[in-house]
Predict the structure.
Amino acid sequence: MKLFTNKKKLLEEIKNINNISFVPTMGSLHKGHENLIKKSVRESKKTLVSIFINPKQFENKEDFKNYPKNYKSDFKILKKLKVTYLYKPTYKDIYKFKTNNKIFLDQFSKKLCGKYRKGHFKGVVDVVNRFLELVKPKKILLGNKDFQQLILIKKHIKKNKINTRVIPCKTVRDKNFVAYSSRLRNLKKYEKTNLVRIVRALKKYKRNLVSRKVNYSFIKIKKKLLSLGVKKVDYVEIIDLETLKKPKKNKAKFNLFFAFYIGKVRFIDNF
């Protein structure tokens, strides 16, 4: 594995390679990241992983400061997974150049997390676009856990006619059905225990919605989550995966999307 912290050296290395698969990360790698990387290594000749904690997608300075970091462990994982290139850029590398593409934010950016995290998706799409303009990968691999982010990046790529294919990858979960997330490393032990109970309750709620044993009620599910140790609920919504709106037909394929705070940690998922 070759490590690059300098844009010029990276671009010199990859200038004649046209089949790179790209996995963007903010580091603090977990089994979800590993799944994306393994798929990339398995299916592509060259895999480039980036580690860059992007300040422009954090609306809260404390959240940015507290984002977990574990570069030694990350490096070991990437080496073990036989990644071709690791790019760990500086802020200047990423933001001190003029982009060719115009940032496109679909209307879907105003829903779910977009209601609660001002400027977040603009920051995400901007940084991913910058990586795409630099690296020009054939594929970019993204996890379904961040479904809204995945859709918005996909729509931006389509709008700007960028020659990169988005490969969605399934969410990786632990034995308790909790999705792996870097932020969960900041939870206290009792908060982790509570999170298992919360996810279990949401899974049961989704099952009951599908079988129509219950009707959707934000007030009722919010009350239940607060009783299980959630500090604050941002949203619990059902979204039709085709229309990206509230389901109108009974047979529509929908997911339950949710975001809440457990302690100081904001947790999002969908299933």
